[in-house]
Specification:
The protein is an alpha+beta fold. It has 13 helices and 19 strands. Helix 8 (about 225-235) packs across helix 10 (about 330-340) and helix 10 (about 330-340) packs antiparallel against helix 11.
Length: about 450
């Protein structure tokens, strides 16, 4: 688009959106276009628009459709691939933060400008909870549409398992209410298929009673034996426990003894969604694996599991995968690769799944990986972008060394990795079914700045 046409478009948008337009000449432009992850991303949108309601969202979509400009949808801005910003129009939902909580009915309607932390605090005031992920600043829309794996995944399942309905603005500007009875194919697709089918402006969630949890951080020395033991205990634990084991060199944090800084540790985030006495007894099995280097476990509100985080923009290479088991050889391989990396912070994150998530049929939603046992994220964080080929090769070699029978991947944790990896996230005919639904609701592929599923062609 020429400079003159771009200028005219921005002027027109300013008139229509009453000051909710941020363009390159505005003082807040760099902040508005920043991404949370992907330290090398530096995209300059034509404009960032902050709609106030679904009707204004529909108008932004119409502008993108009419001009052919790429359209990025930004909730919390946590896309690993930086999909919340593009060199076109950015539809920033951050002004849409309404929430309507039905305490007696155990449901909540929430606008998708809310972050997981904001939603959790609001419903937590009533002793209620919906499970999202593990980071407060993630937008509720993005994590939900991709599936939602977090601290309640074994107890209550994925976030999409608690999604009851949604308000979706489609590519033609229609504002649809979708649920099991209205537009059921579209409702199936948005529960795991990502942002390919429209902009979710409101989501209706089921709420669970939860007055508090027993959890926090436990730091153990990392050896093949402790990694194996940790995973084994996590698999054998009650479903109330969901844990994230970050195996990595200890950063220089004050709660870990200085002599262990830089040495391999298991920096585990653990959440027991049940009585504190039971939770403490379960955690004792992990404490017994080795003398803890730090034990920060205790009773807390569920919101305490996702404290505010620093505004970081790390440079990293990473991959996501599922594996079937962690045996001694796998654990030893993990320790070996962490010891051979030259990255500032290499890491292997292990999440034992199962429980409520696995009891939902695979074809009930577009999230197929119900029977996957362990999710793994491998990452190398570093400072010099020129080192990317070295660390990318390390991640790829590491992944190949521990890969087993499960070839899948979780779409919310993919980087910008191309169509083949998107297809891996949707096996079992799911990709083809999603492509057919896309052809109905977005035949022009307006929603393509995402882990894209192009519309099927006849």
């Amino acid at each position: 688009m020429s400079i003159d046409r771009t200028t005219a478009l921005v002027r027109a948008l300013r008139r229509e959106f009453d000051g909710r337009v941020i363009a390159p000449d505005d003082s807040g432009y760099d902040e508005a276009r920043a991404v949370v992850y992907g330290g090398t991303a530096d995209r300059r949108p034509v404009a960032v628009l902050r709609p106030a309601n679904a009707a204004q969202v529909a108008r932004v979509i119409a502008v993108a459709r009419e001009t052919g400009l790429p359209l990025a949808v930004r909730g919390g801005g946590h896309s690993n691939a930086g999909h919340g910003v593009c060199e076109g129009l950015v539809l920033d939902l951050s002004a849409m933060k309404g929430i309507d909580i039905d305490v007696e009915g155990r449901t909540a309607w929430a606008e998708t400008g809310l972050t997981c932390g904001e939603y959790t605090a609001a419903v937590g005031a009533h002793g209620l909870v919906t499970g999202f992920g593990d980071t407060a600043s993630v937008g509720i829309g993005g994590i939900t549409l991709g599936g939602g794996i977090g601290y309640l995944v074994r107890k209550h399942g994925l976030t999409v398992d608690d999604l009851l309905a949604a308000e979706i603005v489609t590519a033609d500007g229609a504002i649809l209410h979708v649920d099991e009875d209205r537009h059921p194919d579209l409702f199936w697709a948005i529960r795991g298929g990502g942002g390919n089918f429209g902009v979710a402006t409101r989501l209706r969630f089921r709420l669970h009673e939860l007055d508090g949890v027993y959890g926090g951080m436990l730091v153990l020395p990392a050896t093949a034996e402790t990694v194996l033991g940790f995973v084994t205990e996590a698999e054998d634990a009650p479903e109330e426990l969901s844990a994230i084991a970050n195996v990595m060199p200890s950063p220089p944090v004050p709660f870990v003894p200085e002599e262990h800084h830089g040495r391999p540790v298991i920096m585990a985030m653990m959440c027991y969604a049940g009585p504190a006495e039971e939770g403490s007894r379960v955690m004792d099995r992990f404490r017994a694996l080795a003398p803890p280097l730090a034990d920060l476990l205790g009773e807390m509100p569920y919101a305490g599991m996702c404290p505010p985080e620093d505004d970081l923009h790390p440079i990293s290479d990473f991959t996501n995968m599922f594996i079937d088991r962690v045996d001694h050889d796998t654990a030893a391989t993990i320790i070996h690769y962490l010891n051979t990396s030259t990255a500032t912070l290499p890491a292997a994150q292990l999440r034992v799944l199962g429980g409520a998530m696995a009891r939902v049929p695979a074809d009930a939603t577009a999230f197929w990986h119900r029977q996957s046992r362990i999710m793994v994220n491998l990452a190398a964080i570093y400072e010099d972008p020129a080192e990317s080929p070295l660390h990318r090769a390390w991640v790829a070699e590491f992944a190949a060394a521990i890969r087993q029978g499960d070839q899948g991947a979780y779409v919310n944790f993919l980087a910008d990795e191309g169509d083949e990896r998107v297809r891996v996230a949707y096996p079992g005919g799911v990709y083809e079914r999603l492509a057919a639904i896309k052809a109905v609701h977005d035949p022009g592929n307006v929603f393509r700045v995402n882990q894209n599923i192009p519309p099927a062609t006849s």
